[in-house]
Design a protein that fits this description.
With 210 residues, the protein is α/β, with parallel strands linked by helices. 39% of the residues lie in helices and 21% in strands. Strands 5-4-6-7-3-8-9 form a 7-stranded mixed sheet, sandwiched between helices. A two-stranded antiparallel ribbon has the order 1-2.
Length: 210
């Protein structure tokens, strides 16, 4: 297998190393405008493209990818493209289990490294607004996710619709990501707090943390 090309452009910025970014958008068009080039570049470099979406939007996502000139069926068959609905990721078994999801992310990134050398991971996070047990653990999960992503050189982007999340949640989400995309610009996040410190703050708020 040829050595993969790990040159990655995200929101117009060239990445020099791993990235776990929160991306804030006002609508899906803005999200697609910024992240579809990230996907297209990944296909050109034969990276693994792994995405998690609202199942109601999966067909639209596949159409958008096909519009880039990508043979979606062939990409799915080869394993280069995987687009999962929330029910097969964050909301498996009808609930959100942060530890099961962390294990899934680790498996996806590990398998992607073995098979393709690099993974581009794009997850829509509005599942946490659904009425399922465990969804309130989203902030704790996002903080713990850094302990997984730091072991890989991949790019993980968690997208949030600013019209749907409260300011309090947005601020906590911001503090759990080393990088942030806001206003269409990727930047190092000056508000980022490492997991050990952030989880300590959650304990101090009397939020149960194991």
């Amino acid at each position: 297998m040829a050595e993969p090309n790990h040159s990655v452009t995200l929101a117009g910025s060239a990445l020099k190393r791993r990235c776990h970014a929160c991306a804030f958008f006002h609508d899906r068009e803005e999200e697609y405008r910024l992240l579809l080039p990230f996907v297209q570049e990944g296909f050109e470099q034969r990276h693994k493209i792994f995405q998690i979406v609202d199942g109601r939007h999966r067909d639209e996502r596949l159409r958008r990818i096909a519009a880039l000139g990508i043979e979606v069926a062939a990409a799915e068959e080869s394993g280069h493209l995987e687009v999962r609905p929330w029910e097969n990721a964050h909301l498996r078994a009808g609930r959100f289990d942060q530890y099961a999801m962390l294990a899934l992310v680790e498996d996806v990134l590990g398998t992607g490294r073995e098979q393709f050398g690099f993974t581009r991971f794009w997850a829509n996070m509005e599942w946490s607004l659904e009425d399922f047990p465990g969804v309130d653990d989203i902030v704790e999960y996002e903080s713990r996710l850094n302990d997984v992503t730091v072991r890989f050189d991949d790019v993980v982007v968690c997208t949030y619709d600013l019209n749907r999340f409260s300011a309090t949640v947005v601020m906590d989400i911001l503090r759990t990501h080393p990088q942030v995309i806001v206003g269409g610009i990727l930047q190092e996040n000056p508000f980022y707090v490492p997991p050990e410190q952030f989880l300590g703050e959650l304990r101090a708020r009397s939020v149960p943390v194991q």
